[in-house]
Structures are given as C-alpha cells and as structure tokens.
Amino acid sequence: MNSAQLPFELGRRVEQQPDTLPFKFTLNDNVAPPKPTKPVAPIKPTIGANWTSAWSAQSTQGACLAVSGQNQALAQNYWAQFVAVAPVSGCLNVEIGTLAWLWLMFVGVSGSTARLHSCWQNHVAFAPKLSGCLKTRIAANQFYANHTTTRQANAPHLTNCTATPTAFTQYFVNGFIAQSSGYHLSGCLKTAVSRSVQPPCEWYPIPIDNTPNRDDCDCACGKPPPPDALPLDFSTQAAKPDAAQVPISFACGKPKVIIPNLDNYMIYNEIKAQLADGTSLELLSLNIKADTAGYCWQADLTVSPESFVKVKFRQPEKDVITVLINSERFDFMAEEFSDNRAFGKKSYTITGRSQTALLGADFAHSSAGLVNSESYARQIADSQLKFLNFKIENWQIVDWLVPANVYSLTDKTPIAVLQDIAQTAGGFVASHPYLPQLDIRPTWRVAAWALADAAPDVQVPNSAIVSISGSLQQNLRCHAVGVAANHNQGKAANVYRREHGNTPRATDLSHTLYTDYNVCEAAGVATLSNTGIHKSETVKLPWIPKYGLNRAELGEIWQFNEPAESWRGVVKSVQISVAMNGEVPVIYQTLGVDRYMDI
Q1: Is the pTM of this model over 0.90?
Q2: Average pLDDT, the chain
C-alpha cells in the first residue's frame, strides 16, 4: 500500500449499510471489534432530609388538647373531659313551675307574689329559673333577674358563672375558677425553640495558619478570582516596562509594580502651590507626612513674604492651600505660621493639615450615650460621619455585629470612634490627600511571619534606592494571646499560631467591641505580628512616576532588592520633601518600613 494513501475506502459506493465501518485500522480483517463494556450503574445515595435542626434539652410536653383526671386552672381552655358533669349551659332559659314575678325589690319574703325586679336578697319557696346570677342559694323560688346573692338547691343550667357551689355540678366549662388539684398547663400547643448557641464568655481556640492564604482551595496561588475580575491589566501603563518584561503576570507571588533596574533615571518634577481662588504662591520648600498612628496629612510650607500676605488664617475665612506634586494633589488648611530670618532674608512657614483634621478634637464636638440598636461596626462608623460631609471610601478590615447598648460614644469625637473601631480590629485610619474621605485599612494585611510568602505591592531595585538606615528592636516572640470582651454579651477566644502552640503568650486583650470571633482573630493576628524581632527601616527614594515609582500608600507591602539580600516590609509612614535647587524642584519620599526578622 502506498504510504501516501489512507486505507479509507471512500470511493466505493455502499449499496447496503454494512455492520462494520469500512475503515481498515488493522492488518487482519477478521479481527472482531471489542465488545463495549457494560456501564456500571451509578450508586444513588438515599436522601433522607434536606434540612437540619438544632434543639436544646427539652422536657416532655403534651398537647393539652385532651386532659382527663383532676386538673387545676387552664389558662387556655380548649376541650376537656370531665367525670360526672351535669349539663351547664344557657342559664337564660330555665323551665319553672307556676311562679309569680319578682322585680325591683331589695328584701322581700313572700309566698305568692306578682313581680319582683332587681331584688338584692330574697327567700322564697319555689324558684326553678336563675339568670345572670353570681352566687345563688335558694330553696324553691320563682323568677329572679339581676340578683346579686341567691341560694338554691338544684340548679339545672349555669353558664359563664364565676363561682357557684351546687349539688350535682362538679366542673364548669369556660368558667373562671374550677376547684381541683393538679398542675398548671399554659400554652403547650406551640413550643418556641431557639437555635443552639455556644455559651458566652467562654474561651474558644482560633488557630492561625502559617500561610497567608487560608481559603478552601488547594491551588498553588490561592483561590482563583471570579471570571469577571481577572487580574489582567490591558490598560496603558504609567511607566514603560523593560523590553524583557511583560506587564501581565501569569505567575503567583509576583509584585504588582516592578521598577525597572536601570543605570540612570531621567527625572522631571513639577510642583505648584495655589489658593482656592487660583492665586499662586511662591513655594520655597515643603514637607508633607502621614503615618498609621494619625488620621490626616500634615504639611509645612515655606513661602516668600509676598506670598504669605495673601493667605488668611482666621475662621471662617481660613484659606485652603492646594499643592500639586507631579500632578498629585494635596489640600491643607492654613492653621498656623512662623517667620524665619537668615542672612537678611525673611520667609514664613505655614503649618496645616488635610480636611480630615475637622473630625478631631480641635474642631468636632464629642458625642454622648450608647449605641442603642444592634449595628455592625461599619454602620457605627458611618453614623459618625452622616451629617459631616465626610465618608468612608474603603473599608478593608473585618466587619462584625455589635449588640445594642454596649458601645459607648461618650466623650468621643467622630475620628476617635473611627480610630477605636479600627484599632480594635488591628487596623488604622488613612486620610485622602485632598478629598473628605477616609479609608479603614489593616495594619498587617497578612501576618508578619507570612510576609515572605505574600505578593508585594511594589518591588524596588537597588539602583532606585537613595539610602537605607534601620534600627533593630528585639522583643519576645509570642505565639498566643487571649482576646475577650469586658461584658457578658461579647466573645472570648484564644488566638494562637498553629505550628507553635500556646506559649509564650502576649498580654491579653480586652475591649467592648470584641463581640464576634472574626474581630477576635484579627486583633490576635495584629498583636502577635507586633511581637518578635523587628527592624524599623528608613528608606529614601525618588518620586519618579515615569518608571512606576509613585507615592507609597500606608499599609502597603514593599520589597527592596539590595545587593546583599531582598526583603519585604509594611509601610508605616510616608514623608515627602521638596527643596528648590534654583528653579528646579528636588523631590524625595522617605518611607518608614516595619520589617519582620523573626520566624
């Protein structure tokens, strides 16, 4: 057979459909095709129920629809079976003998009288009928209507009576009082059972894994993102990447921003200062800073005397100074100033803060009282800014439910409430540089001991580092900490590192807002991350957006590739300095980085 020809007989016309395909896949045409295996029937498990219920211990209760024997008062009367019960019903119609009428008499003794109305007490001979009586004892009388006290020997029919001792009537249906001996049964038709809950104020272990990703996924890079949020950025990059690097990350654990490692960086800085009405200011120097312990940006601006006289400091005409650094905007309220004189030249330094300073004790009033409704922590924080033209833009810490009448707002300004909530969950408050917005961020986005496995936000090469200096702090590395609320509506937990056990322990944490286990875990992770060996690094960098080296954000994870080693840390403070070299602005950013050096 020609090797260029396939052994498929596609040219022969098939007059009748054969039992086998006309494809020769074997050398022997007599080989029968293998018989298909019989599919195995799937095992269908029996589904008994599609719900679950949790019950506490309950004693046996009946339905109280049918009760026989001796009973006491029934709060909710339905049906009852009685022994030797005379018919009691309809005491309005009673058969009587031949009697006269008795109406409207207080006391009267008569044999054969006409009518008596509204008698108070009367003794007669024969009286069969009784109507609307409260208590009656008679011998044999005629009609009685609207009587208060009467006595009788044999009472045929009584209904809705309060208490009537009679001869043959033992029990009263729908009566108010039935004399017997028994137990109280009330509302046993429906039993309200709540879900089983864990008793409060108990210790529950919360182990912390050594890996930063604790999702229920065996993937090497963690839980994959949803299909509509793939982390592939096809937009225009702010900086031109290296030709050997593709700005699409197909591997996990890679930084979001990679600064190219170049011998030289071309830097061109722009800076501008002006008032709200567009009046320009001659800026001589500038220092801007923020850290995780504060809640606003602070600035010191040095300007010329000609520019200083244009700025207003008094309320309500206090000016807002806008500073543009490489197209990034900062707004500061002009609050204080000082003058400087050197070598016959005079200048002024203006001190100010961002708009979020209005939420502090210098401007805002303190609140009072308790949060009187069950609310989430985010709701409590939002309520503090409801009428202040501020908002929380990003809530990045855990959120949890706080019971009513537990958390106090007394003597707390709005920013004090926000900081208290953030610090309870191991976070901090970050201010927007010019908008009235705040972010609530975690201090440790991942545990300190898991920084080596976390993806950094920015990777800085050694060629872009101006200088680094650091100081070492050696503290005891703790593996466990107790977290508990200081009231009986909260939670308590023992947060510990799974691979190290429960010793040594850090100082226990106690706060009103520890009312759920997720906030207990977040507080425990932050506390244990602050223990052990740390090094506070001060890193001076240029600000070069052209190459992707932008201003650092508080709480970000940065990696620094020094010649000897590469290390990662969390940004705890940012300081921006601007100096004028003639007409050319020189801009640097100095980062305070917390570096974990323990295990």
Answers
A1: no
A2: 76
